[in-house]
Amino acid sequence: MKFLFVHQNFPGQYLHIVRHLAAAKQHDVVFITEPNGNWISGVRTVPYPKPRAAAAEAHAAARELDGAVRRADAVARTAANLKQLGYEPDIIIGHHGWGELLNIRDVWPDAPLLGYLEFFYRIDGVDVGFDPEFPILAAEHPRIRAKNAVNLLALSLGADAQTPTRWQLSTYPDWAHPFITLLPEGVNLDVCKPNAQARRRNLTIGKAVIKPGDRLVTYVARDLEPYRGFHVMMRAVPHLLRARKDIRVVMVGADGISYGTPPAEGTWRQKLLAELGDGIDPARVLFPGRLEYQAYVALLQRSDAHVYLSYPFVASWSLREALAAGCVVIGSDTPTVREFVSHGQNGLLVPFFDTKGLADTVLRVLEDATLARGLREGARRYAEEHLAMSDYIAGYEKLIGRLTRG
Predict the structure, then answer these.
(1) Which CATH architecture has domain 2-186+389-403?
(2) Is the pTM of this model over 0.85?
């Protein structure tokens, strides 16, 4: 078959299915994307130029849509060039988030189209207004509502769509649900797996060494920001450091912004470090930035307690990977996390804003070896039952087969 994928940051959410299709050596896999340095054997990438930013005089609520339609134009022109060369895909699979697919049916009106729908924005009940520390002014509501312009245009294409969690599906209006297939994403269980030897040897993080006798508390996010509870985690750390002298904390993530807004000055890490002052011992609290994947997995395998916090928003792959690695997961009691973590079975849940409760729960699992062992086993068992990559790929193939009629 001829597969055409579209995502502005190749390979995006399509890493595993694209690898699988390319490895089969039976398919023609083409990927339209903005230029980047990523590479997968057997996949032909076709770059399109990054569109210009929205005009400064455009209304703030319209700028995201302006960028999306500019991107849709760039992708459609690139697709038209492919068609001129004789390329006709059997199916088009892409992410709707940046508007790239909005015009692609003008090029190939008869090709099945499967779009990734990630989140439907609302002004209450989900992420917006969740954190009282960062109130949203009513003047921001038009901009937030307008973020759904691409969502609504995508749903009007009459195409099929996919989303990875029940929670994300629930954010969409009821009338949209029949068009969206729930396709849970998987983890490579042969890579993300427990390693009984990890706590018996040194682990090097940059220039720091985590020794076997250290109790390692881990936290992972793409970027260190409030949407992933970075501020809550940071405020819990001084409690942990005072309670036990053997605790080391490693907080993985960059200083950018993936979700939400930046602080007035500097980065969220700088802001929280300034706020907490001497409560954060730099010899015991490490910020290594982003890690190479192998080092990241080794960190999860060594972790004694892994904290995952999130606003009611999209779940990170790191939560799935932590469960697969057999981490003792302490998660926020938010719907994003509750879909994966059942309290007392494969992890523990705490109220998102309860910094003292978070610290006390981490200390509890560090002090109760029997509890920790049961949660580790429950996490891995959950991953094997619900997060197997083979199930994810099989579900993808079944959906593709239905859309292409085999």
Answers:
(1) 3-Layer(aba) Sandwich (3.40)
(2) yes
